[in-house]
Amino acid sequence: MATKELTGTTIEQAIKDNDIVLVDFWAEWCGPCKRFGPVFEASSDQHPEILHAKVDTEAEQALAGELGITSIPTLMAFREGILVFNQAGALPGPALQQVVDAVKGLDMDDVRAQIQAQHAEHSHQS
């Protein structure tokens, strides 16, 4: 499965419609992004059940700003609509595979419980 270009208008639906979404934030002028591209493509072939998406930060500056992208490449992983991984820097293949395995292995009930606990904590502090 090839990677899919996402935009500010399509990213939300893509994250809703897929269990796991990996998003590569990149730009044409970025050397490390170009090196990470083939690694990301290879992962999309190995894991057709995971949506591998790319966001061109030049074309989608508002979206990149909204998501707080400060350096590229940045890889984000969403599972069941929740951001579970966010890291800048080009990953080598084995490191990307570790991220995929970790995201697949998450206990999402546990993740949601942690998020609820954090929200409860914040609402007590305000």
Describe what you observe in this structure:
The structure is a single chain. By secondary structure, the chain is an alpha/beta fold. The protein has a single domain, classed as Glutaredoxin, CATH 3.40.30. The chain is built from 5 helices and 5 strands.
Topology:
Elements: E1 4-5, H1 11-17, E2 20-26, H2 31-46, E3 51-56, H3 61-66, E4 74-79, E5 82-88, H4 93-105, H5 108-125
Parallel strand pairs: 1-3, 2-3
Antiparallel strand pairs: 2-4, 4-5
Task: Give a brief outline of the structure.
With 126 residues, the chain is α/β, with parallel strands linked by helices. It is built from 5 helices and 5 strands; from the N terminus they run βαβαβαββαα. Helix 2 links the parallel strand 2 and strand 3.
Summarize the main sheet.
Answer: 5 strands, mixed
Low-confidence stretches: none
- Rounded to an integer in angstroms, the radius of gyration calculated over CA atoms is 15 Å
What name is given to the CATH topology?
A: Glutaredoxin
CATH homology superfamily: Glutaredoxin
**How many helical elements?**
5
For the record, the count of structural domains works out to 1
Q: Quaternary arrangement of the chains shown?
A: single chain
Structure classification: alpha/beta
Q: What is the H/E string?
A: EHEHEHEEHH
